[in-house]
Structures are given as C-alpha cells and as structure tokens.
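Thread amino acids onto this structure.
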C-alpha cells in the first residue's frame, strides 16, 4: 500500500470475520463519557478469543511484511500492538502518556477538545530506519495518532502506516494523518436523524 493511501475494511476473509465480530460484540453505550456521546466499547471484542484473533489478523493483514516493530498507543493500542507483534514475530514499542517512561524520551503535544496532552517514547527503543506500524483502537480527530507518528519520525523510524479498529468518520481524523497510510477495520458513521 503506497504512502498517503487510505484503506477501510477490506474484503478479505480476515477483514470480513473481524467486521462480523465487531458488529456482534461491540457494546454501544449511550451518554458516555458525557451526554450525547454514543461510546463504542471494544472490550467485549477483546475479551472474546475468536473475535480478538480475527481483529489482530485483520488489522495487520494490509501491512504484512512491511514492518519491523509495532507501536501501540496508550492504552488499548498496547493490547493490539503486543498481539500483532507476537503474531508477526516483530518487536513492540509503547507510546505512553507524558511522565510514564523512566529513560530519556521524545515528547509530542497534541490538542484535545479542551486543552492539550502529550505522548512520549523512549529515545533508544528503536534503531534508526526501523519500519513501524502504529496501532490504536479508535481514530477520532487524529490528534493522538498524528502525535504518535511525529514521535516515531523524530526517533528516526519509518512509519509504514496506522491501523485502527474503528474510525469515527464524521470527526475527520484522516485529515490530521495526511500523507500516511491509514487502515480502519470499521468506519462508524453517525446514524441518520
């Protein structure tokens, strides 16, 4: 998949199996974390062995053979990254919230709805030129994944792409990742009114 391309779902047997599991097991929680929000909880998907296996296989499939390490964004991205790294025989790197890592770090700030946050990565965790797949559970506005990619760029890694389980299409997160390959297993669109 060339840099800058956007992929969603896919029609492979793995992608279809993962989407079926997502549709069957994702818990939809109204008014969480605040009124008017329809939260999609992936923990039932992750706790079901067959569904989790399908998601792990499908999220990594488009990037097969292109990465040396998998970076997971705190916190649910850790689950995905560790599982994909194990399944593909590659390394895993954690991208943490500020102040959680003990050695010298690179840091990148990003905007939240009401303020800013920062992510960090150890400066010495990856060799220069390492090819890295970045994983997280949800792509919303794109700020978190854009900051994660900026950290990896600064560390001298080559980001081969970003994979997410769900993409909240109405929030335009791909805009923040312009020029990056983004693969979402499922595109979530607002319900018609």
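Threaded sequence (193 positions):
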């Amino acid at each position: 998949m060339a840099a800058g391309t956007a992929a969603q779902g896919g029609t492979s047997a793995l992608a279809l199996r993962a989407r079926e599991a997502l549709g069957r097991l994702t818990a939809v929680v109204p008014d969480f974390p605040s009124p008017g929000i329809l939260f999609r909880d992936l923990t039932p998907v992750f706790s079901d062995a067959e569904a989790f296996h399908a998601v792990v296989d499908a999220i990594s499939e488009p990037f097969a053979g292109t990465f040396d390490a998998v970076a997971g964004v705190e916190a649910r991205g850790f689950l995905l990254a560790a599982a994909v790294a194990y399944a593909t025989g590659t390394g895993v790197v954690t991208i943490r919230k500020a102040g959680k890592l003990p050695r010298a770090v690179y840091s990148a700030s990003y905007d939240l709805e009401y303020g800013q946050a920062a992510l960090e990565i150890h400066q010495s965790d990856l060799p220069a030129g390492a090819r890295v797949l970045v994983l997280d559970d949800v792509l919303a506005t794109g700020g978190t994944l854009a900051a994660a990619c900026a950290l990896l760029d600064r560390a001298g890694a080559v980001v081969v792409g970003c994979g997410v389980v769900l993409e909240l299409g109405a929030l335009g997160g791909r805009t923040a990742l312009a020029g990056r390959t983004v693969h979402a297993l499922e595109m979530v669109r607002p319900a018609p009114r």
